[in-house]
Each structure stands twice: as structure tokens, then as C-alpha cells.
Specification:
The chain is an alpha/beta fold. It has 2 domains: 6-84, Beta-Lactamase; 92-312, P-loop containing nucleotide triphosphate hydrolases (Rossmann fold). It has 9 helices and 14 strands. It has helices spanning 41-50, 99-106, 125-140, 180-188, 202-212, 227-238, 244-254, 288-295, 301-312; strands spanning 13-17, 22-25, 33-36, 57-62, 65-74, 77-84, 113-119, 142-148, 157-160, 166-173, 193-199, 217-223, 255-264, 271-278. The protein has an 8-stranded mixed β-sheet with strand order 9-10-8-11-12-7-13-14, with helices on both faces. Helix 5 (202-212) packs across helix 6 (227-238), helix 5 (202-212) packs across helix 7 and helix 7 packs antiparallel against helix 8. The chain is globular. The N and C termini lie far apart (61 Å). The mean pLDDT is 91.
Length: 318
């Protein structure tokens, strides 16, 4: 048995089986694991298996560190896949994004509409959009309301804004896969910002679109391999509850931007690579991106390329 406690190990992902075997990444090899024997493994395991939950996805707080838990049933019993979340939300200025991209996305703090951060599993999209929400609160204060399944980053609490104002975030979790009730509660609470956790259900997509045209600034993530795929996935989910044409129309009116992110480089020195597409924040002015989305024919490659050129040249997007 090691003298090291679990939180003293350097890892982001942890795998635990019913035999109480603990596995983390082996940094000596790409995509490899190693077994560890933390001195407090029994304490951790007891807490892990005794947390009440009805869904396979839930959150767990262990000695002040938040874990996102996914319970998987295998042929030989249960398996727990855990993602260790940071103790603090990092500053978006410290995540290695291009300063011109940061400058533009922070300029949207006063707008209303929907910002979607897309990527594959482990691409850093949740960290990025959480950092963005925290920065908005630090810029000008205000009330933020999160609806997550489960909660991931430590966003809850008070923020002191640079202008002397106060920001506050209330973090909530979806119960019984019901996204409607927490969103109704959010809208009644009059938040400036609404953060809807990863869209992976028809109900979540419908409520996200509804919130996008409610006058709030809405942030969300989605699993997707491209900007077009992110939009298509959102529409596909939403079309279970409304017509596809209606979903495209609402999104065209509510969208502010879509960011697709990958992490490149070796495990300990990975940096984000992003592609972005933004709609004109002034919905009363003509916008090619909104028109394309409204049509349902997502020929967006030229718009993405032209915006990337403008951003690189520091010229206005609209």
C-alpha cells in the first residue's frame, strides 16, 4: 500500500472497478494506464459507492475536489469512470487561446443569444466555457444560473467584478432527466447568464433553443467533430420536440457563435486549436450566417474561412 493519498497523484481520469482496482494514465506511454494503491482507497471507494443517485452520471465531492462520475455496467460487474475537475476554474486568459479570439468572445458579454462550445470527449470544452462564464462574471458582475447533468466545474459562489460590481453563480443539477423545471426556475430567477450543460438529449436541446431567444446570454457544450456537426446535432435533438424548420429558425435568431475545439500536442503540454463561426450580434442587420442556418443548408465553410481571415487581420467581423 502506498503512503500517497489519492489526491496527491497527478491524474485527470480515474477508473475504478468492483475489485477496488484504481487505474490512472501512465505518462510514460501514450494512451496507457497504470494501477495505483492510494492509502485512502478504501475511504474513497466507500464514498463512491454510497452516493445516492438514480442516473449513471453524477458528481462527487471528495475532500474538496469535485469528480464527474460515470457508472458503467460491464459483463463482470460495475465500473466507475471519473473525471477529476480543477479546484478552481482557470482564467480564460491562461488557456493559450489567441488574444484576438479572446477579445472578440469577451465582447459578447453584453449580448443575448447562444454560444456553443463543441468538441470531442476530453477536448477541454467544459473547462473553456466555464472559464468564459467566470470571466463574464468578473468583467461586469451579474447573476449566472447553471443547469448541469452533472455539475462539473466549481462555478458556484460570489465573484468580485473588475468594475466593483458583484457577480454570483448558482449551480444546479438536472433531476430525473427533466430539463424543463430547472430552466423555468432559471428564467424566473432573472439571471444575466444561463449555462446549460452538455446537450445530449432532445429535451436539453429544446430548452437550450428556448433559452437562446429569451433575452439571456446562454452558454452550452455539445459533442461534435466540426462546427457544422455541432449545429446539425443540436437541430437533430431539438427536432424530436419541434419541426426541423422551426428548430433552424429559432437557432438562426438566437445563435451568437459556435466554437469547435481540439487539444493538440503531448499529454502534459496540450494546447487548444479552435475554429469559430459567429453571427452578427445585431439581429436587425443582415447576416449571412443567420441566413444560411435559417435555410437549413449548412454550407458554412466559406463563412468560417472568411471570419478566420478577418480575425487574423484584426478587422471587424461585421
Amino acid at each position: 500500500m502506498s503512503n500517497s493519498r489519492l489526491l496527491q497523484y497527478n491524474f485527470s481520469d480515474l477508473y475504478v472497478n468492483v475489485n477496488k482496482d484504481f487505474y490512472i494514465s501512465d505518462e510514460r506511454y501514450v494512451n496507457s494506464l497504470k494501477k495505483i494503491e492510494p492509502s485512502d482507497k478504501d475511504d474513497f471507494y466507500e464514498k463512491l459507492i454510497n452516493i445516492p443517485h438514480k442516473e449513471p452520471s453524477y458528481s462527487m465531492n471528495y475532500k474538496g475536489t469535485l469528480f464527474r462520475v460515470e457508472y458503467v455496467v460491464s459483463i463482470n460487474g460495475g465500473m466507475y469512470c471519473l473525471r477529476r475537475m480543477p479546484a478552481l476554474v482557470p482564467s480564460i486568459h491562461n488557456l493559450n487561446y489567441d488574444h484576438r479570439f479572446i477579445q472578440y468572445i469577451l465582447s459578447l458579454a453584453d449580448q443575448s443569444g447562444l454560444i456553443i462550445w463543441a468538441g470531442s470527449t476530453g477536448s477541454g470544452k467544459t473547462t473553456a466555457i466555464s472559464a468564459l462564464l467566470a470571466e463574464y462574471l468578473k468583467l461586469q458582475g451579474g447573476f449566472a444560473y447553471t443547469i448541469e447533468d452533472p455539475a462539473e466545474m466549481p462555478l458556484d459562489g460570489e465573484y468580485e467584478a473588475f468594475n466593483g460590481a458583484i457577480g454570483f453563480c448558482k449551480q444546479t443539477e438536472v433531476k430525473n432527466d427533466d430539463w424543463g423545471k430547472p430552466l423555468k426556475s432559471a428564467l424566473r430567477s432573472r439571471p444575466r447568464y444561463i449555462f446549460i450543460g452538455e446537450i445530449r438529449t432532445p429535451d436539453g436541446a429544446k430548452e437550450c433553443l428556448r433559452a437562446a431567444i429569451s433575452g439571456h446570454l446562454v452558454l452550452t457544450t455539445i459533442h461534435a467533430s466540426s462546427i457544422t456537426d455541432a449545429i446539425s446535432s443540436l437541430i437533430k435533438y431539438a427536432s424530436y420536440s419541434m419541426s426541423e424548420a422551426s428548430a433552424y429558425d429559432i437557432l438562426s435568431r438566437g445563435l451568437l457563435g459556435v466554437i469547435k475545439q481540439d487539444l493538440i500536442g503531448v499529454e502534459s503540454h496540450r494546447k487548444p486549436h479552435v475554429e469559430s463561426l459567429f453571427a452578427n450580434p445585431d439581429i436587425n442587420k443582415g447576416c449571412q450566417v443567420r441566413a444560411i442556418i435559417r435555410s437549413g443548408k449548412l454550407n458554412l465553410a466559406t463563412s468560417i474561412e472568411m471570419q478566420a481571415i478577418k480575425m487574423a487581420q484584426c478587422t471587424p467581423l461585421f
